[in-house]
Write a structure and sequence with these properties.
Helix content: 25-40%
Radius of gyration: 24 Å
Pfam families: Peptidase_M10
Number of strands: 7
Keywords: Hydrolase, Metal-binding, Protease, Zinc
Order of helices and strands: EEHHHEHEEEEHHHHH
CATH superfamily of the domain at 86-158 and 214-292: Collagenase (Catalytic Domain)
GO molecular function, one term: metalloendopeptidase activity
Distance between the termini: 42 Å
Protein name: Peptidase M10 metallopeptidase domain-containing protein
GO biological process, one term: proteolysis
CATH topology of the domain at 86-158 and 214-292: Collagenase (Catalytic Domain)
Structural class: alpha/beta
Strand content: 5-15%
Strand order of the largest sheet: 4-3-5-7-6
Length: about 300
């Protein structure tokens, strides 16, 4: 008996019938989806924004025929970076980004089971990684040919201190804002003086929680790099804090309420802690695999 609990001897006759070992995980082939209605049903039954195994196991013609629907329903983007047989060469022009880029490339390569992102050179590359002072506009930006990290935030020693994003920090933020609002509405000076200590207490609690939840510099900027490389794989944003492709609002960056599955202005998993290290969720991986099927990489 093997680990599947099936007879391994091929051709063993039992009552004239040949018995062959069967792996139960391979027993059922993916059902072919041949209509838009069937695709809609498969999407509805599946996890939000996560292509199912069935959707990822269709013939090549399926992805051509339903490209528009798949792109919209799984918040995909389009081909923005040049790939050669599912491989792209990344040149890190700014030395300060070498560690973060290397970690990010390794993260995607591991979960996709192949070398998708390969180290390039100044003379041989498809994507250049560099820095630019963008003030407070954004952390990273990827237009398909150049992946840019905001040097202003990268070099700001205080920037990460306020990035702690967990259920606790969000709860304390609400608590602090509510106390501040209440304080501003008090008209009696004695009452204001008495309540001020509550505002200070809530503020200090929030700062402590944010400091505790704040990511390390290496983890955070490596995560930003994983996110930006995700765009090269054809991924738009999602409203899930546990996805590396998370964005606070649906109109941030590449995603828009028009092109995506739906609009959002807050996280769909508000009790979760935001992913701020070089890692990806199963939803990120499934969408990246769909990106390959759609010809984005």
């Amino acid at each position: 008996m093997n680990k599947w609990g099936a007879v391994t001897m091929v051709g063993l006759l039992l009552g004239g019938v040949g018995i062959t070992a069967v792996n139960p995980q391979q027993a059922t082939a993916a059902k072919t989806i041949t209509t838009q209605a069937a695709l809609n049903s498969a999407i509805k039954k599946g996890t939000d924004l996560k292509p199912s195994a069935t959707i990822l196991s269709q013939p090549a013609s399926f992805y051509t025929r339903y490209k528009s629907s798949l792109t919209k329903n799984f918040n995909m983007s389009k081909k923005i970076t040049t790939f050669h047989n599912h491989k792209t060469y990344v040149y890190v022009k700014s030395p300060s980004l070498k560690t973060y880029t290397t970690k990010a490339m390794a993260t995607w390569n591991k979960v996709l089971g192949r070398k998708v992102f390969v180290a390039g050179t100044a003379s041989k590359h498809d994507l250049v990684v560099t820095t630019k002072n963008a003030g407070t506009a954004w952390d990273g930006m990827n237009n398909g040919k150049t992946l840019t990290i905001n040097s202003n935030r990268l070099n700001d020693a205080n920037y990460l201190k306020n990035l702690g994003n967990s259920a606790k920090t969000r709860s304390l933020t609400t608590q602090y804002k509510n106390s501040l609002s209440k304080y501003s509405k008090l008209t009696n000076n004695k009452a204001r003086v008495a309540y001020y200590s509550t505002v200070v207490k809530n503020y200090n609690a929030l700062l402590a929680a944010k400091k505790s939840a704040a990511p390390t510099k290496t983890n955070y900027w490596s995560a930003i790099m994983v996110h930006e490389l995700g765009h090269s794989l054809g991924l738009n944003h999602t409203p899930y804090l546990t996805d590396i492709m998370y964005a606070e609002k649906s109109n941030n960056g590449l995603t828009s309420a028009v092109n995506g599955k739906y609009a959002w202005s807050s996280a769909k998993d508000p009790k979760s802690t935001r992913l701020m290290k070089p890692a990806v969720s199963s939803r990120d991986v499934s969408r990246a695999k769909l990106g390959m099927k759609l010809g984005f990489w």
